[in-house]
Amino acid sequence: MNLQNKDHLDRWLDAALRQYGGVEPRTGLEGRILASLKVEAEYHRVRNPWLWVLAASSVAVLLIAFWLGIGGHGSRIPETLANRSVSIDKIVGPAQEMSKSTSERPGTTPEPTRTGRSPTGRVHTAVVAASVSGPRLNQFPSPHTLSQEELLFVRYAQDFPREAILLAKEQRNFEEEIRRAEADARNRSPNSDQER
Amino acid sequence: MTEQALASEAILMAGTNEDALEAVVREHARRVYRIAYSVLRNHHDAEDATQETFMRVLRYRRKLEGIRDAKTWLARIAWRVAVERGKRRVEISMSETEVLNAVRQLRSQMASGEESTICKELAELLDSLIFALPDSLRDALRLSTAGDLTPGEIARVLGTSEASVRSRVFRARQMLKEKLAALEGKYESPK
Questions:
Q1: What was the ipTM of the complex prediction?
Q2: Per CATH, the architecture of B96-186 is what?
Q3: Model pTM greater than 0.95?
Q4: Does the distance separating the beta carbons of B38 and A29 come in below 8 Å?
Q5: Which CATH number applies to B3-88?
Q6: d(CA B84, CA B81)
């Protein structure tokens, strides 16, 4: 190849490389890119809150499960004791105490405790749940704590017993008078109906 | 504030401001597209690579705070995306007839001395010759043709020096000319 041809080739290569690199995209490239970017941004905007909601709800579920596990554990103890055969050497102590406490109460019978031997020869005791759930009270219904007014009345009666007795008598007389008046009124009303 | 700093700020704002996002895309989309096309040589793939480049910009815009030159940063992302996608590209194979047609057109264009549009076969020939270049030369040449990137910017994209880029582009052109001359000699028409 001569020098002139080399020069021509050089120029041709310049032009060819310009065409090689100077490509134009299809019309609307920017619009398509912007549209896809908006979709992507929107997707992230929507997805992130849902992730937070999901995380928060899963944490809440875990906390509830944990709380139920702890809360339910205490209440389940008597039930499991009732339904399960417990080794005698572990249960005999509390069971005896309970039977003592129930036998001391007036009007109550000791809770039945069934003892038996397992095929292995080990002694087991089945304890009824009611006997374990708590000490039985002597009074039914259970006495409630006194209200503020009742406490004041009790204190008054302690401080001024005579006046309190007089007041109680007066109150009783007043209630009896009212009761009598009501009875008279009831007796009169059938007579008046008959007169009509 | 310099132009590059403004571009960086615009990209930073692009995550929250739609106008800023649009400005960034309008300013850089064509350059990014050309860089992608120089590697992939396919409009569809180049557009996909362009979209992915801007997706990455949107995703990692917070990292731009320490970047001074947004133009080069974008060019580097586009280059990496295109190279990742272009790994599957197979070598162009041309038949003997196609090469002959390409050489004939090359000869006629050189004889006329006019800058006319190169035909499909000649474009394919040039593409196959560039594809056959060594990697370092090919990358420098492609980036030098792809857009308005200076040798310094190309050097930052490729992670090399400016002098190295200039040298690589020169050597790549030399090799192309030698190959074209060889082809012309090989298919020289009988007188």
A1: 0.76
A2: Orthogonal Bundle (1.10)
A3: no
A4: no
A5: 1.10.1740.10
A6: 5
